[in-house]
Amino acid sequence: MTSEKPSMVKICGIKEEATLRGMNGLPVEYIGFVFAKSRRQLTPMQAAQLQAVSKQIPMAGGKPPLTVGVFVDPTMEQLAETLSDVPLDVVQLHGEETPEFSREVRERFRIDVWRALPISEGSEPTSKQSGADRLTAYKDAVSTILLDTAGGGTGTAFRWDVIPSYQEAARNNGLRLFIAGGLNPDNADELITTYLPDGVDISSGVETDGVKDNHKIAAFVERVKSS
User: Domain N-(5'phosphoribosyl) anthranilate isomerase (PRAI) spans what residues (predicted)?
Assistant: First the structure.
């Protein structure tokens, strides 16, 4: 276990104002806007409008959620343009970004940076050393490591038995560890009860026919926070 506190929740791929309004009062710490090419992609102006709405909606602790922008191999110029339009709280890097690039983003924009690390489906449990090596490289560049199924946004889970090696490495390096990939209201309890990660990140697992489903969001959050 990484923490005695309930796992934090990030609902990613927000596209509609109605989704945010339906989350009023839910203990959700983070919401995610996708700027990388995908069916959930937003323009900076669309994200700015949604962020303005989110600031009016109390969620975890009675406060508005923090906003996370998801990028895949952006340039510094692209980040600068986006952040000038929408003042995000977190930049999440989901491509091949190096520790050096991640550190430069944090220092240049004075913003919290998360780094997603892909885990292949069906991969064997990672050795302590290999898990530690992947995380240690980002020790002074990011605050949070997000483990996600390779490819991201697939709705498919990776083998959770790789999680402990990454949890140990995260603790040793002062990093938080979030889990994504194939999560849904039906498997949230197993993940939290077994591993209690610092946080969980979900998108397709709380959708119906490709659209965010507030009933599924509420069910997922309840199971994460009560497990």
Answer: 9-222
How would you classify the pairing of strands 207-208 and 211-212? antiparallel
Q: Residue 154: its pLDDT value, please?
A: 65
Give the whole-angstrom CA distance, residue 117 versus residue 197: 15
- CA distances to 78, 94, 210 from 98, rounded to whole Å, are 17, 11, 32
Position 131 scores a pLDDT of 66
The per-residue DSSP string of 108-121 comes to HHT-EEEEEEEE-T
Beta pairing partners, 117: 147
What mean pLDDT do residues 193-211 have? Answer: 96
| CA dist list (Å): 191 to 53, 124, 159 | 31, 18, 11
Amino acid identity at 157: A
Q: How far, in Å, are 114, 193, 226 from residue 6 at the CA level?
A: 20, 10, 8
